[in-house]
Write a structure and sequence with these properties.
The protein has 14 helices and 24 strands. It is α/β, with parallel strands linked by helices and 508 residues long. The protein has two domains: 264 residues, Aldehyde Dehydrogenase, Chain A, domain 1, CATH 3.40.605.10; 194 residues, 3-Layer(aba) Sandwich (Aldehyde Dehydrogenase, Chain A, domain 2), CATH 3.40.309.10. The strands form seven sheets. A seven-stranded mixed β-sheet has the order 13-16-17-12-11-19-20, with helices on both faces. Strand 9, helix 9 and strand 10 form a beta-alpha-beta unit. The termini are far apart. Bound molecules: 2-aminohexanedioic acid.
Length: 508
């Protein structure tokens, strides 16, 4: 779909005033955030840049909406989320297209991202009847103990450009069934998709009589800082780099608020000598080249048994040679652009450093600046042969750079694997049961996600998503991640005629 019909299908037209603090207009203004296509540099649209004042208004709206939303039984809250899921189903095509236009991921991934929103909506609807607490046996006769979960209030969601809509939905739709209201600060690099999502959900919120529960503030770092510092924000969920995540955590922590962090990854795949390369090679290519290496789950390191490392590199080079780089909306493209010029610069300076430190580029390594690529932020998918101690390998660069390191044993692979500051996603390819189990054991991968015979990226929403160490420790999406959006209360009820004290204490 061409941009004008995408915008029309999503209701993003000039005469249609934007959401709270996010007025959409087709012209550029001083106080506007321009959305530029990473593919060809054209201005896709402009959104009014929200100020801290706008943020404060939005959080007041969200807090005002909280009591009525909190009072609605959770399964009824689920019905609103179900209708959001329906709208997303209906608008999957145009919204997926807009993700590709604005973020630059290929269309299959743009549509996949909206599918991820639909999946989490379905999950959240079921969850609305499953916000279980546990009961426990009291040590005192005639007493009952249990735990219950209450909503937190208004929460903040700060999301990144790379999953401009799905990560919002993991947080928002789960938090909504939990009874929270919210303010969303999307990445200013992808403002249109955020406005589009809000345009889609606004009628649903209105129909259900709760227009203020979800709010959008398209702003810069000052807005994020105001959110982090706001004592009236019990939880701030942040997705982004470890560097910014540390700032968010310390600001939120300074006021003893809670942060839910989903930060950088430095994800590796171990390929053992018995691996089925028919599975491993495509998994590595999807993991390293998919989304142009701009997923937090992207495969960045490949630890390959020395006996097969040359074969693996040869096969990867062949596969990389077939990667068509270009317009993310054209059918044959496998890799779109990076998000902006800064990202290309980071790719280039990372490669300069890699070479300085002794890494050998065996494929790719350059920015693409001519012909059909000249107006966009395109780079070549790159493979680097490296020793295990290459310093550059410790850092996450949001670009398609894959390090290949030869290893002699599983123990060595696991040691190198865990020797980075980040701990998000990991995988092993092996046909040996014992090797797989060891990788998954407490002595194996130290990541929040560990897979066998599938790659590091493309997780399903049903599991808890997140990781350890500098990845921040948060868990979002499935499983019992919902608990992060609620407060826990332990209750003890005495239905006896006595007042026995715990621990057998006699008082008086
Ligand atoms: C992210 O990059 O922030 O597992 C999220 C995946 C996707 C989500 C990635 N489902 O690759």
């Amino acid at each position: 779909m061409k941009l004008p019909s995408v915008l029309e299908a999503l209701g993003l037209t000039n005469d249609n005033p934007g959401v709270y603090a996010g007025r959409f207009a087709n012209r550029s203004r001083a106080d506007a955030i321009e959305s530029r296509s990473p593919t060809d540099g054209t201005v896709l649209g402009t959104v009014r840049r929200a100020t801290v004042n706008d943020y404060e208004k939005a959080r007041s709206v969200a807090w005002d909406a909280f009591p009525a939303w909190r009072d609605l039984p959770a399964p009824k809250r689920g019905l609103l989320v179900r209708d959001i899921g329906e709208v997303l189903r209906e608008k999957c095509e145009p919204l997926g297209h807009l993700v590709s236009h604005e973020m630059g991921k290929i269309l299959a991934e743009g549509i996949g991202e909206v599918q991820e929103m639909i999946d989490i909506a379905d999950f959240a609807v079921g969850l609305s009847r499953q916000l279980y607490g546990v009961t426990m046996h009291s040590e005192r006769p005639g007493h009952r103990m249990y735990e219950q979960w209450h909503p937190l209030g208004c929460i903040g969601i700060i999301s990144a450009f790379n999953f401009p809509v799905a990560v919002w939905s993991w947080n928002a739709l789960v938090a909504a069934v939990c009874g929270d209201t919210m303010v969303w600060k999307p990445s200013p690099k992808t403002p249109l998709t955020a406005v589009a999502v809000h345009k889609l959900i606004e009628p649903v919120l209105k129909d259900h009589g709760h227009p203020g529960i979800m709010n959008l503030v398209v702003g810069d770092a000052d807005v994020g800082q105001a959110m982090a510092d706001d004592p009236g924000m019990p939880l701030v969920s942040f997705t982004g780099s470890s560097a910014i995540g540390k700032q968010v955590a310390s600001r939120v922590g300074a006021r003893l608020g809670r942060s839910l962090l989903e930060l950088g990854g430095n994800n590796a795949i171990i390929v053992m000598d018995d691996a089925d390369l028919e599975l491993a090679i495509p998994a590595v290519v999807f993991g390293a080249v998919g989304t142009a290496g701009q997923r937090c789950t992207s495969t960045r390191r490949l630890l390959v048994h020395r006996d097969i490392v040359d074969t693996v590199v040869r096969r990867l080079k062949k596969a990389y040679a077939q990667v068509r780089i270009g317009d993310p909306l054209s059918k044959n493209t496998l890799m779109g652009p990076l998000i902006d010029a800064d990202a290309v610069e980071r790719f280039e300076s990372a490669l300069a450093r890699i070479k300085r430190e002794g890494g050998r580029v065996v494929c790719g390594g350059k920015a693409l600046t001519t012909g059909k690529h000249r107006r966009g932020h395109f780079v070549e998918p790159t493979i680097v042969r490296a020793d295990f101690d290459l310093p550059a390998m410790q850092e996450e660069v949001f670009a398609p750079i894959l390090y290949v390191v030869a290893v002699d044993s599983l123990d060595e692979a696991i040691a190198i694997h865990n020797e980075v500051p980040q701990g998000l996603s990991s995988a092993i390819f092996t046909e040996r049961f014992k090797t797989a189990e060891r990788f998954l054991s407490h002595a194996g991968s130290d990541c929040g996600i560990a897979n066998v015979n599938i790659g590091t990226s493309g997780a399903e929403i049903g599991g808890a998503f997140g990781g350890e160490k500098e990845t921040g420790g948060g868990r979002e999406a499935g499983s019992d991640s919902w608990r992060a959006y609620m407060r826990r209360q332990t209750n003890t009820l005495n239905w006896s005629d006595d007042l026995p004290l715990a621990q057998g204490i006699r008082f008086g």
